[in-house]
Structures are given as structure tokens and as C-alpha cells.
Amino acid sequence: MITVSDLTVEVGGRLIVDGLTFSISAGAKVGLVGRNGAGKTSLLKVLAGAAIPAKGKVGIKGGLGYLGQDTINDPAAIHQSPVSRVLSGRGLGELSTRIEKARLRLEADHREANITKYVRLIEEFERLDGYRAESEAKALLAGLGLRESRFNLMMGDLSGGERRRVELARILFAGSEVLLLDEPTNHLDLDAKSWLLGYLKNYPGVLVVVSHDLELLDESINRIFHLERGHGDGSLVEFKGNYSAYRRAIAERRRQQAETARRAQGELGRLTRLADSMRHQTATRARVAKTLDSRAARIRETLDDAPGPTRTQRVTAKIPEPLPCDLVALEVDGLCKAYGTNTVFEDLTFVIERGERFLVAGLNGAGKTTLLQVLAGRSELDLGMVSVSERASIGYFAQEHEELDFDASCLDQVIAQGPTLTEAMGTLAAFGLVGDVVHQPAGTLSGGEKTKLALAVLVAGRRNVLLLDEPTNNLDPESRVAISTALAGWRGTMICVTHDPEFARMLDPGRVLLLPEGTIDYFSDDYLDLIQLA
What we know:
Blueprint: E1 2-11, E2 14-24, E3 29-33, H1 40-48, E4 55-60, E5 64-67, H2 82-87, H3 92-108, H4 112-127, H5 130-143, H6 160-173, E6 178-182, H7 190-202, E7 206-210, H8 214-219, E8 223-229, E9 234-240, H9 243-278, H10 283-305, E10 328-339, E11 342-353, E12 357-362, H11 368-375, E13 383-388, E14 394-397, H12 410-415, H13 421-430, H14 447-460, E15 465-469, H15 477-489, E16 493-497, H16 501-507, E17 511-515, E18 519-522, H17 526-533
Parallel strand pairs: 3-7, 3-8, 5-6, 6-7, 12-16, 12-17, 14-15, 15-16
Antiparallel strand pairs: 1-2, 1-4, 8-9, 10-11, 10-13, 17-18
Helix pairs in contact: 3-4, 5-6, 9-10, 13-14, 16-17
């Protein structure tokens, strides 16, 4: 159970919510929704204890599992295998080590104390279902789409999307009574997403999930919290039901409000006209006019207090024309990359021409992100050659936003690319970043806002070759459409990795590279299913 009392949350000097009070009981599956920048991620962090509120209390009864948007930063995790990382969710890794040490002591010394300690540890291991734990951990990893061939790698050798899957498996494996999940379907293929939706639907505890995934919000959610930024603070609207039902209810409420306002406006006009016709006649009629004025004033107050349409900063995402580039923008010959004995890809050879849209597809772990990192010069190649034309200016959109300076403000990062202050403010506004948010450090932004900032920085730098790794992740539906449309109409060169079939369709790539095979084919709609499955 979660109880929240008089909660106030601020991020970077921006008030997210003020005086928020609510409770969530076992069995409630809450979808925390709202536009990018409304404060969903910040509120979830406070609920999880990962951030401190400005005021108020959060109480959680039972164990807590929290999946944030950030990549795991536990240094020890980098040197664990995925299976070991999942097992650590119940403390079984440490417990197994203690059992082994106790066994060795017992073999060397059969004293009663050593026997008692060994038996106690074994009983604890059995209580935690340790003997079945490894197979359960592997089943969770497989359900979330991590291939068995990746189970024995180190976490540091996995892609960002794979590490996130492992972390989600670890959280589910821990068996917590409360789950707080921020965009859990990011990086999941179709089968893994279907598996997760079924798991969450049947989860018996408290679930709070931040997501823009409409299928998740309909299939696995029975309660909606809509966080909406107002003028200076935010409001939280609660609704029992899934997201589609909530949208229908909101649409009907707005229709009724509009109809009520229309009728009130009509009555206001009638009373005003009638009062005006009596105002300068007899004393009796003047008193009637005054009464009518009072009734009109009450109606006018009602109209002034009525909620109007939500005002949000629209994303226009106007992308300037790219700088001139040579006919061949980038050339790859015999490219090979491996981590230890694990070969990611080998003998990749292709040429990217000016203005081409080139899609990189393949299953998770096939090396898509690694390839973009190599092309961007962020990862060294083992064999082969990458040749970038003299006039090519490469911009890299990283899946985990590693290219951003999390300590620098949005505005400073855009200005650093060369535009004037006025131009920088315009670029940020085009991506929906306005007001106080432009002065916030990037590290305080939501996942969607970081996506918008990273794209704004690329645009400000007038890059003519873009390497895009999941550029539509974390975006609300309206922003996703706006940014996809802008990128589709841009005339520069683009190499893209995406799980978003609608974005791929709008991008209309000419060719597709299939990894790890290295096969290149002309793109057709047949590949859209692979993109969703991959």
C-alpha cells in the first residue's frame, strides 16, 4: 500500500505538485500519465525514495521494486552476469557465497556452532526457494526477451536496452509487494512486451507505472492518475478504469462543459439585453434591471471559473536545412567488433550516400547500438575501416542520452552549438522546452524532455549526418508524431535504429542492414514486423 500526504515536489526550482494527498491499495494498478515535462518521473522518484520531496510524506507498506529511466549505476553490477544480477534481487548471490564459506568451515571443523550456522543458512536458502531460483531467473530473462546466448556475458558487455531488461527482471524476481516502473516497455520487442503485459495484469500487489504505451495502459491498468501542469503547479486527476475509458470520459466531460458554457453564454446575453432595455425606464424597471445584472454577474463568474482547454507547449520541431555534404557521406569496409570471445558483428561493408535513410535492424543484442557507437567514434573497432567524408558533420543521438551534459542547463548546451541566444530559445521552444525548464540542468529533466533536448542540440549544430538510436523513446504521442514528421522531412543523411514501426514507416528508408548477419536489402513494409519484433 502507498499513502501520500500533503506532498509537494520541486525539480530545478519548478513546482511539480503541491499539497498532493492520495492512497493506493493492494490490487490497484495505476497508470501515471501526462505530457512530457508534467513531472511524472519526478513524482515516481519521490514515491520510490530516490528523490526528496520539498514537503509532505510518502508511506509504503511492503517491499518496493523501482525501475527508473536511468541506466543502472551500481559499479558492482557491471561485473555480474545477467543471471547473477537477477539473483541478487533476493540477496541469493551473497547468501550462496556465505553458504559455500560455511560448508568449507564445517568440513574443516565439525563443531556444533559450525553445524548450526550451516543448517541455518541452508534453511534460509530453502525459504527463499534458492534451488529453483536460477531457473526462475532465466525464465524471467527469457520472458523479457534476453537471448540465452547473452546469459553468461558480463553486464558491461550488454547494450543499454539489454541491461534495462535485466534490471526489470531483477525487480520482478525480488517479489516486492509494490512496483514502481518508469517506461518498462522501452526496448522490449513484441513478444517480450506481450509477456510483461500479462505479468503486470496478474500481479497481485500495488503497481504504479509511468508509460506512453497505450496498449500497456489499456491491458494492465485499472486506475489512471493524470498529472497535468498548470500555472505554477500541477494537478492530479484520478479515474477508475483504463486509459481508453479515461480518454472517453474526459472527452464526454469536455463536451458537456462546452455545452453548459454555450447555454450559459446564451443566457448571459439574454439577461444583459433585457437589463439594458429596462435600465433607463421606470424606477420599477430599473430595479428589475439591477436584479438581472446580478444574475448575469453570477453567470459570468461561473464562466470565468470553468476549466478551459488545457494549454500545453506544442512541439513543432522545425529542423533547419543540413550543411552541404559530399556525395558519399560515410563508407564502411570489413568492420568487425567483439567483446572478448563474443563477436558482435563481422565483415560489415556498406556505403552511405548523401541524403540516404539507412535503417539498422536485428534482434536485441545483435549489435545495433554498438554499430552506431563505432560509426560515431564512441567505440573502437577491432578490424576494418570507417571513412567519413570531409564535409560530413556527424551528430549522434545516444539511447541513454550519454551525449548530454547532465550538469549543464538546456540553454547552455544548445548555445554551445553556435546559435545566438534568440535562436537557441527558438530551437528549444520548437521541441516543447520553454519557460524555466530551459535553465534546468539536463539531469533534472524527464526522459521525454531529455530526448527533446538531445534532438534540439543536434539541430542547433546543423549536423548533416545523424546517427539515431531509438529517437522516439519516452515521447508522448503528440511529440512522437511531430518529431517523426520533422525528421522524415529533413533532407540530410540518417542512419537509424528503432523499435517504432510507425516512425520507420514515416522515415521511409531506402535500405535496411540486418544484424548480426550483415545482410543489406531494400526496405519494404515487410520489415516493419521485424522492427516491432526485434
